[in-house]
Amino acid sequence: MGLLKPATNKMAYAKVGLYGAAGSGKTRTATEIAIGLHKAIGSTKPVVAFDTEPAFSFVKPLFDDAGIELLVADESRALADLMLFMDEAEQVSDIAIIDSITHVWRDAQESFLDRLNESRRRNGRKPLLSLEFQHWRPIKAAWAEFTDRFLSSKMHVIVCGRAGNIYEYQDKDDGTGKKELISTGTRMATEKELGYEPSLLIEMVARREANKTVNVAVIQKDRADKLNGHEIDKPNYNKLRGHFDFLNIGGQHFESMDQRDSKEMFPDADESGWDSEKQDRAIASEEIIELMKKHAPSMSVEDKQKRAEWMEQFFQTRSWTKVENMHSTMLKQGLKQLRDFLEPEQHQQEAA
């Protein structure tokens, strides 16, 4: 089956991202967009909100004035509940608001850490205080399910998030050659890939004037290229309409991008390989340390020196941490040489 076909506009639903600092107008702008969009498409369904603040009590009068029913899920910040919300929302509504996605991202991290520590306690291990590098893959995999739903759901979705700083190392200008960590911009405080997904991405900024605050929408990305770079005071649907007019509202919307994959390209992949390597490494390391303790068991300076010299001779390091992290093949080879050196008679008997 061929992959190529004539291109069509398959963006039938708005996918909007709003982020900014406290008081910048994220919730209000999401409400203004939802009300205007509701009228523009002639929807008769309620607007729904996954409200983690909760904040929609304060904007409910705006929906009431517009004659639009507002349904909220305002008792959870859990990613699992957000996925259930997306399922339910698609059945009863044309427009969904998620505010704030930052809380949900934190829940995903904290929930994984809690579950991990439950397992560690059952196995008599100390709990971790924070996530480590190897933990991010399953978290991001779970999060990717939401991202796919956000993009492919047959409803208009507005996601609000708090602003987070983007940091980079730059050379200091004092001639020392040292680097300093500086803030070079802002992004939505959530899983970093999500910021790339909305077709309309808006940074909300609070501009302070004499006796008031003006909410300003800074258009960071408009895939329709109607609003890019614009700064819009007191944003609402009509002021942002250039983007929404481009959409193929009422037409075909693309399906999930996760329906196909490339598993057939990796027929020999074995998910147990890494676990097997870790187990082999742990066993070999334990045999090495126990063999050295057998022949130099005490904590005397002399025995410590012997163990350090053996490590250097057979593993080219005096760091036990480095030994533990060597590949199991190297550990087994070094273990054999160490055993031949410390217990030559036993080696000769086994050979015979």
Automatic annotation (TrEMBL):
Question: What is the designated name of this protein?
Answer: AAA+ ATPase domain-containing protein
What residues does the AAA+ ATPase domain cover?
Answer: 12-132
User: What's the domain of life for this entry?
Assistant: Bacteria
What Pfam families does this protein's entry cite?
AAA_24 (PF13479)
Q: Look up and give the organism this protein is from.
A: Bordetella genomosp. 9
